[in-house]
Amino acid sequence: MLAVFPFHHRVELAATLCPESLTLETTVVANSESPVPVSFGFHPYFGFSEPSRANWHLKLPAMRKLVLDGRGIPTGDEEPLAGFNAELGESSFDDGFALTEEQTPFSVIGATCKVSVELLGGYRYAQVFAPKDKDYIALEPMTAPASALTSSRGLRFVSPGERFQAVFRIRIERAR
Fold this sequence. Notes:
This protein is mainly beta. The protein has one helix at 148-151, and strands at residues 9-18, 21-30, 36-38, 45-46, 57-60, 63-68, 74-81, 84-87, 93-99, 104-109, 113-121, 125-130, 137-142, 156-158, 163-174.
């Protein structure tokens, strides 16, 4: 594995399950003589049996949309997104975002429940994936944008002997 990612480190993952939520806390410990780049994310997918996808209500915060090249790789440019607070309808997402606030919630509401992904710390980026012909949505916390390990854009490092921590929570509530 060191041939692919030649940075000595340890990853610790703590999961806390409660009746209404799941919290995932990821810690990267750099135990080498050189800094360790931090670029990871999670890909939670959600769907509801009722109503149809077009009627799911999606709420995204204001953030900066990452401009992509023809291959879907961030160019380094960003454009503002005022947020999104509406039914999905025919909208389609396959977009990366730079967060303007580190503690940020994303949510989708079906007929009977609301699912939120709450970024609590360490995540500066997110991906939203909701193809209009599929009955699911992914609200994905990310510590760096796609391709950060090759471009260095948005990449952070953990110094030798130090720790980096990122935390997010998936919360399920009855829809109101």
